[in-house]
Amino acid sequence: MAKHGIKGVIGGGAVTGGASEEVVVRWRETLARHGRETELGGDLVIGIPTYIADTEAQGIKECKQFFEEDMKMFAPLGFFRGMTDKQLADLADPKLAPTAGLPNIEDAVKAGSWLCGPPERIIERLMELQDKYPGLKGVHVGCTRIGTPLDVMLEQLERFALEVMPKFKKQAAMGRG
Known about the structure:
Blueprint: E1 8-11, H1 21-33, E2 44-52, H2 56-74, H3 85-91, H4 105-111, E3 115-117, H5 119-132, E4 138-142, H6 150-163, H7 165-173
């Protein structure tokens, strides 16, 4: 990808704990080996699931099922680190899954790998990413997870466009971001 000028995309949500700093650093080193010097996060897009609601608790409650469907899809592929073979097997059984000690949306929100809450919280977290990775110019956001109804996806994308993006458009106009 680096050799051909293709930008990288990494998941910041499907993996427990969010985007891996190690991956971001290795990406920058790989670009440098191919003659591209960038700031940390340059030529990279980080994907992070977001769900806008009036409160964090409301967001967690409303998107819990989307997180669980996401886990069913991505845990067997290794994107939920630390899960045992037994947990992976129990995940596939609706009778065993509730008592299998699986990752949950509450912990994902605490870790920053899923963003739930009011627009101000989403903005705050995205600004933290921007500060941590000064070369980062793009993120992939939204509640476009496995099993999410189309009307929920559209409502969430509209809220993001109206309630979050204007803050970053102002930054871009001022020369930051």
